[in-house]
Write a structure and sequence with these properties.
The protein is an alpha/beta fold and 445 residues long. It contains 10 helices and 13 strands. The chain has a domain of 258 residues: Ribonuclease Z/Hydroxyacylglutathione hydrolase-like (Metallo-beta-lactamase, Chain A), CATH 3.60.15.
């Protein structure tokens, strides 16, 4: 049964506090089995030393702040990381995390040549941390008000017209065999919406897993899940972008072993701990954690990066947890960027500046109409292509379409507009990974 209501998270003090005790363990090589990998992760979790120092999914409640991205009210007030900042101009908690900023987009070389960039300020796995009660100062556009809600109710613009639904049979669905997780392989499989199976560093990572047939406030899926749950390999980690129902699905999460490593936004850890997950790592923007690679040699890096969005799961918890995307980096320095939900804005250039060697960017192209309601938090296809160019990534994989009806554009419009926008860039067609639901592709360079 789809979860209908939840208790809001408990109030936390306004300032961050971090534990600073423990000893650094010597990680033993992890075997290929999921149990052995989990054991290696346990060692890091127990002993790593910290560095010194009625809201439905995005469619039903809008999931959005209407209007073009503008600085939120209250800009330049203090934030949870101890320094003054304004909405849309957040500075990292650790200045040394900007180590990549001086790197150029030119002359990047192949992943094998560059290797993973050094990172300082690495966060321990599973650390319990205190966060501000609200992350509203991170908004880049104000949340919808009474007038916007009234207009939405008056116009009834949450679903496509009948003509926009007639192309449902054309939605791409072609499930296939998952790629073999061979050493050195980076592979992605689109399960639908924002759910991906990412094979990286000999680990299997799920992004925003939603295997339910329907989510609160929306019709049933337009296409089945691209990979049956029983066909999944052992899951080594899960990344969550934010807490909206179409990205954080309680019935799907309940299927996972409670020892599965969870990488989640700041302020969302309590939701998982209340469900007895024991390896929950909460990160702020630009913070990083690592899991031992499946081979036991090296690690896979998980970095939480900003997005233009918001969070809400109950009537009383707007922006009580953070939102963002993830960059996964393997031992050879190959990088996969999963944006989560986001509108278009300045963060893409900043992410590209810090990570000039992104090999694959998974970006949303659907749930964008009407624009007066959704432009601040969901990119349309043309904006997604512009975001890809801002990132300086090598390949793009579209997502967040062809699965749930969350907005009013015709169901096939996102991919048609995307193909047109891509053609206008003059980029090679093979760099656009427009996979069907259930489709896979392997990074070969």
């Amino acid at each position: 049964m789809t979860e209908q209501t939840e208790q809001p998270p408990p109030t936390s003090p306004a300032a961050h506090t971090r534990r600073t005790t423990g000893t650094s363990p010597a990680l033993t090589p992890a075997h290929r089995s999921a149990a052995s990998r989990a054991g290696a992760a346990d060692g890091a979790l127990r002993g790593a030393v910290p560095p010194a120092g009625a809201a439905a999914g995005d469619g039903a409640f809008g999931g959005t702040a209407p209007g073009a991205p503008t600085p939120a009210a209250g800009a330049a007030r203090g934030g949870g990381n101890g320094g003054p900042r304004g909405a849309g101009s957040y500075s990292p908690a650790h200045p040394d995390l900007a180590a990549h900023e001086g790197r150029s987009h030119t002359g990047a070389g192949t992943a094998a040549e560059r290797g993973p960039a050094p990172v300082t300020g690495l966060r321990p796995l599973g650390l319990t941390r205190r966060w501000p009660r609200s992350f509203a100062d991170r908004l880049t556009s104000p949340l919808p008000g009474v007038r916007a809600m009234a207009r939405l109710a008056r116009e009834g613009a949450l679903r496509p017209a009948a003509a926009g639904l007639k192309d449902i049979p054309q939605l791409p669905f072609a499930p296939g065999t998952l790629p073999e997780a061979e050493p050195g392989t980076v592979a992605v499989t689109w399960a639908g919406h924002s759910s991906w199976i990412v094979g990286i560093g000999e680990l299997t990572v799920l992004t925003d897993p939603v295997w339910s047939r329907r989510i609160l406030g929306t019709p049933a899926r337009l296409t089945p899940v691209g990979v049956r749950w029983e066909d999944l390999p052992p899951v080594d980690a899960v990344v969550i972008s934010h807490n909206h129902y179409d990205h954080l699905d309680a019935p799907t999460i309940a299927r996972l072993p409670r020892r599965t490593p969870m990488f989640v936004p700041a302020g969302l850890g309590g939701w998982f701990r209340r469900r007895r997950f024991t390896r929950v790592t909460e990160l702020d923007w630009w913070e990083t954690a690592e899991l031992p690679a499946g081979s036991g040699v090296g690690s896979v890096r998980f970095e939480f990066v900003p997005a233009h969005h918001w969070s809400k799961r109950t009537l009383t918890d707007s922006c009580h947890s953070l939102w963002g995307g993830w960059i996964l980096t393997d031992q050879r320095g190959r990088q996969v960027y999963f944006s989560g939900d986001t509108g278009y804005g300045h963060w893409f250039k900043e992410i590209g500046r810090r990570h000039p060697d992104i090999d694959l960017a998974m970006l949303p192209i659907g749930a964008y109409a009407p624009r007066w309601w959704l432009s601040a938090v969901h990119t349309d296809p043309e904006e997604a292509v512009q975001a890809f160019e801002d990132l300086g990534a090598r390949n793009m994989a579209p997502m967040h379409w062809a699965t749930f009806v969350l907005s009013s554009e015709p169901v096939m419009e996102p991919i048609r507009r995307l193909l047109t926008a891509w053609e206008h860039t003059g980029r090679p067609r093979e760099q656009l990974w427009d996979l069907p639901v259930g489709g896979s592709r392997v990074l070969t360079a």
